[in-house]
Write a structure and sequence with these properties.
The complex is a heterodimer of chains A (433) and B (268). Chain A has 433 residues and is of the alpha/beta class. Chain A contains 15 helices and 10 strands. Chain A is elongated, with a radius of gyration of 32 Å. In chain B, helix 6 runs antiparallel to helix 8 (172-203), helix 6 (123-158) crosses helix 10 and helix 9 runs antiparallel to helix 10 (236-260). The chains are: A alpha/beta (433), B mainly alpha (268). The A-B interface holds A 149-151, 154-155, 166, 168-172, 264-267, 284, 287-288, 290, 292, 296, 299-300, 303, 307-308, 310-311, 314 and B 26-29, 153, 157-158, 160, 162, 166-167, 170-174, 233-239.
C-alpha cells in the first residue's frame, strides 16, 4: 500500500477554516496517534501550521483518507472533503519536498516552514516509522539544498522585510543603530517591533500626542520624545521611520538640512510608510539621505517575489531526482517482504501438492520419498531463483514497485506481507485497493 | 614556464570575476567558496610564477617593469583574497580580479626580466622599498575599487533602482569600511616605501626626476585620503569619490610618465 498526504492549505481553504483545523504543538503527538488508530495506517506525521494542516500516512490495509476526512470534519463541524486534497505516492513525496522548500507557501520561498516541518516530524515520532522518517529527513535535506542552490528564498518578500532589506543595504546590520519613529499608530508599532527585533540600540518615538508616544515607547523599551524635540535629535539618528496620520508632509528639507552638518558624511535612511506621505520628496535629493516610501517597499517585495517565481523550474530540477531517489529506496524496501511472501506462498503450494502426491505413492520407500521431496524443493528453487534475482535488480534500479505490483497481482499475494517483522513498507499502487 | 604560469593566473582571475558575477545572471548568491577557491588558485599559480622568476634570475621580481607589475598584481590579488576571506563577501572580485588580470597582462606585455641592478649593498633596501610600495598600491587599488562600488551602489539606491547591484553588492557600510582600512594600510606601506626610496637615493644613487615626482604624488594622494578619513572624518560618498579620483589620477600620471619617460624596460 502507498504513501498518502491528505490535508487543507491556503490554496484550498480560508483562514477561518484553517484556524479551526490547526493543531497546536503540544497536541500534535496525541492527534497523530489518534489518526494512526482511526485510519489503520502504519505510520502518520501531522503537519499543522497557520497555512496548512496535512496528514502524511503510510497506508495499512485500508485507505486512510476517509478516516482522516472524518477526523477533520469532526474538528471543523462540517464536511472538510470539499476543501481538502489528496496526493498519493510520488506526488505525495514531491508535495512534501515542495512544502519544505517553501515552494508551496503563501509567501513563496518563506523559510519558516522548514523548521515547522522538522518540528512536525519530531512531534509525531510516536506515530511515525522508518518510511516517514526517511521521507521527512530527505525533505529537510532537499529543502536545505533548494534554499542554497536556488534563489527561491532570496530577497525580502513582505513590505516590513523589504524595509529591513533596504536599511541593511545602507548600514549592513541594524544592530546597534539609532532609530526614530514618527507616529504612534499601528504601522509605527509594527515598525518599532521590527526595529527592536533587528537589534537597534536606541529607538525614539515622537508623536503629536505625547501620551501615545509614551505608551508605545514603554511597550518596546524605547524613549518617548515630544514632537517638537525630535528635530534636534535627528543628527544622532541613522534610521527615521515616518508613520503619522498627518494629511500633508511634516518632514521637509529644512528639518533634515539642519542636522546634516552635525551628521557629517553619515548616511540617513528615511522610510516613509505613511499614506499620505510624511516626507517631502525633495528630502531624497539631499546628499547622504536615502528616502523610500511605501511604493518603493512594495516594488522591492514584488520584484523579489517575481524573481522567486522565476526560480521554480530550478526548484523542480532539484526535487524531481530526489523524489525518484526516495522512491527507489522505498521500492527496495517494498521488494523484500513481497519476495518473502512470494516464496512462502510457493512453498505452501509445493508442500500441498507434494502431500497429495505422496498419498498416491504410499508404496515408495522413505528414501524415495526423501528424494522426491528434495526434487520438489530443488525444482521450486530453480523456478524462483530467476524471478527473485530480477525482482531485486528491479528494486535496485528503481523499477521495483511495478514488478512488485505485477508479482502480487499475478500470484494473488494480497497483503500477506503487511505484518512483516522488519516493519518494511508495502507500496502497491492505489488501483489495486 | 613564466608566461604559461602568468597566463593561467590571468585565466583564474577572470574566471573568479565571472563566478562572482553569477548573481547578475540568476537571482542566487555568488558561490563564496567557489570564488575564494578560484582566487586562491590564481594567487597560488601567480606565486609559483614569481618564485620561478626568483629562481631563474636570482633576485625577487621587483625591479624592471614586467616583474614589478606582476608583483603588484599579485599583491592586489592577495589583498583581495584576504579581505574576502575575512568578510565572506566576494563582490569586490567583480572589480579587483579583472584589475589584477589587467596588470598581469601588462606585466606579460612588458619584458619579464630584471631592471638595472641595484647597488649590491643597497639591494635589500631597494627591494624592500619596491615591495612596500607595491603593497601600498595594492591597498590603494582596493580602496579605489571599493570606492567605485560604493558610488555605483549609492547611485542605484538614491535613484531607487532595485536591480542586481541592489541585491548582490555588499552594504554601503561594508564598502566604506573596506575603503577606510585599505587607505590606512596603503598609507602605512607607501609611507615606509617612500621613506626607503628617499634613503636609498640619498645613500646609493640619485633618483630619476620622474620617479620622484610620481612617487611623491602618489604618497601625497594617499596621505590626503588618510588625513581626510582619519582626521577630517571623511566617510561614505566623499571618501569613495576622492579615493577613486586620486587613484585614477595617480595611474593616469604613471601612464603619462611612461609615455614620455626615457627608459622602456623599467617601472618608470
Amino acid at each position: 500500500m502507498g504513501l498518502i498526504v491528505a490535508g487543507v492549505s491556503h490554496h484550498t481553504a480560508s483562514l477561518g477554516l484553517r484556524e479551526r483545523l490547526m493543531v497546536g504543538p503540544s497536541d500534535t503527538d496525541a492527534a497523530a496517534r489518534r489518526l494512526l488508530a482511526a485510519a489503520h495506517a502504519r505510520e502518520i506525521v501531522l503537519l499543522s501550521t497557520c497555512n496548512r494542516t496535512e496528514v502524511y500516512a503510510v497506508e495499512g490495509e485500508a485507505d486512510p483518507v476517509p478516516a482522516i476526512w472524518n477526523d477533520f470534519s469532526t474538528l471543523l463541524g462540517e464536511d472538510v472533503a470539499p476543501f481538502g486534497y489528496v496526493r498519493r505516492d510520488r506526488d505525495a513525496v514531491s508535495h512534501l519536498f515542495r512544502v519544505t522548500a517553501g515552494a508551496d507557501s503563501m509567501i513563496l520561498g518563506e523559510a519558516q516552514i522548514h523548521g515547522q516541518v522538522r518540528d512536525a516530524w519530531e512531534r509525531s515520532r510516536g506515530a511515525s516509522g522508518a518510511v516517514l522518517s526517511r521521507l521527512f529527513q530527505t525533505a529537510l535535506m532537499v529543502g536545505g539544498r533548494i534554499r542554497n542552490e536556488t534563489g527561491i528564498g532570496r530577497g525580502a518578500a513582505s513590505t516590513s522585510s523589504a524595509a529591513v532589506q533596504l536599511a541593511s543595504k545602507i548600514f549592513g546590520s541594524l544592530n546597534g543603530r539609532h532609530a526614530m519613529v514618527l507616529g504612534a499608530g499601528e504601522m509605527a508599532e509594527l515598525a518599532l517591533e521590527c526595529l527592536v527585533r533587528e537589534g537597534v540600540r536606541t529607538a525614539v518615538v515622537a508623536n503629536r500626542t505625547h501620551e501615545h508616544a509614551l505608551a508605545l515607547a514603554e511597550r518596546y523599551r524605547a524613549q518617548a520624545l515630544h514632537y517638537d524635540e525630535c528635530w534636534a535629535r535627528l543628527a544622532d539618528v541613522d534610521l527615521l521611520i515616518c508613520s503619522t496620520a498627518a494629511p500633508h508632509a511634516i518632514v521637509g528639507v529644512e528639518h533634515v538640512v539642519g542636522s546634516l552638518k552635525e551628521r557629517g558624511d553619515r548616511p540617513l535612511c528615511i522610510l516613509d510608510i505613511a499614506v499620505p506621505r510624511d516626507v517631502d520628496p525633495a528630502v531624497g535629493a539631499l546628499s547622504n539621505v536615502f528616502l523610500y516610501d511605501l511604493d518603493d517597499l512594495r516594488t522591492v517585495a514584488t520584484a523579489n517575489i517575481e524573481r522567486r517565481r522565476d526560480e521554480m523550474p530550478a526548484v523542480e530540477e532539484v526535487i524531481a531526482p530526489e523524489v525518484e531517489k526516495y522512491w527507489e529506496w522505498l521500492a527496495g524496501l517494498a521488494a523484500v517482504p513481497v519476495l518473502r511472501t512470494f516464496r512462502t506462498e510457493m512453498d505452501r503450494l509445493r508442500e500441498a501438492e507434494l502431500a497429495e502426491a505422496m498419498r498416491k505413492l504410499e508404496h515408495l520407500s522413505p528414501r524415495d520419498r526423501e528424494a522426491i521431496e528434495h526434487f520438489s524443493r530443488a525444482l521450486m528453487n530453480k523456478f524462483l531463483h530467476e524471478p527473485s534475482v530480477r525482482l531485486r535488480a528491479a528494486a535496485a534500479n528503481g523499477r521495483g514497485l511495478g514488478v512488485v505490483d505485477a508479482l502480487r497481482y499475478l500470484f494473488d499475494l494480497r497483503a500477506a506481507d503487511a505484518s512483516s517483522a522488519d516493519g518494511a513498507a508495502d507500496t502497491s499502487s492505489t488501483e489495486e485497493r | 614556464m613564466l608566461v604559461i604560469a602568468h597566463a593561467i593566473a590571468i585565466t583564474c582571475y577572470l574566471l573568479a570575476a565571472g563566478l562572482a558575477a553569477t548573481p547578475f545572471a540568476r537571482p542566487i548568491a555568488a558561490p563564496v567558496r567557489g570564488v575564494i577557491a578560484l582566487l586562491s588558485a590564481s594567487v597560488a599559480v601567480h606565486l609559483a610564477a614569481l618564485l620561478a622568476y626568483t629562481w631563474q634570475f636570482g633576485e625577487p621580481p621587483l625591479t624592471g617593469l614586467g616583474p614589478a607589475l606582476s608583483s603588484a598584481a599579485f599583491l592586489v590579488a592577495v589583498t583581495l583574497l584576504a579581505v574576502e576571506a575575512l568578510a565572506r563577501e566576494v563582490s569586490l572580485t567583480l572589480v579587483t580580479a579583472p584589475l589584477a588580470a589587467l596588470v598581469t597582462v601588462g606585466a606579460l606585455a612588458s619584458t619579464l626580466s630584471p631592471g638595472p641592478a641595484a647597488a649590491s649593498a643597497g639591494a635589500l633596501w631597494l627591494h624592500l622599498h619596491i615591495a612596500l610600495s607595491l603593497l601600498g598600491f595594492a591597498a590603494f587599488a582596493t580602496a579605489a575599487a571599493s570606492g567605485a562600488m560604493y558610488l555605483l551602489e549609492r547611485r542605484e539606491l538614491k535613484s531607487r533602482r532595485f536591480g542586481a547591484i541592489f541585491r548582490f553588492f555588499p552594504p554601503l557600510e561594508t564598502l566604506d569600511r573596506v575603503n577606510h582600512l585599505a587607505i590606512v594600510c596603503g598609507w602605512i606601506a607607501l609611507t615606509l616605501g617612500t621613506a626607503l626610496a628617499v634613503g636609498y637615493s640619498l645613500v646609493y644613487a640619485d633618483a630619476d626626476q620622474l620617479k620622484v615626482i610620481w612617487g611623491v604624488t602618489a604618497w601625497l594622494a594617499i596621505t590626503a585620503l588618510t588625513v581626510g578619513r582619519v582626521v577630517a572624518g571623511w566617510q561614505a560618498a566623499r571618501a569613495a569619490i576622492w579615493s577613486s579620483a586620486f587613484f585614477v589620477a595617480v595611474i593616469t600620471l604613471y601612464v603619462a610618465f611612461r609615455a614620455i619617460g626615457p627608459r622602456s624596460g623599467e617601472f618608470l
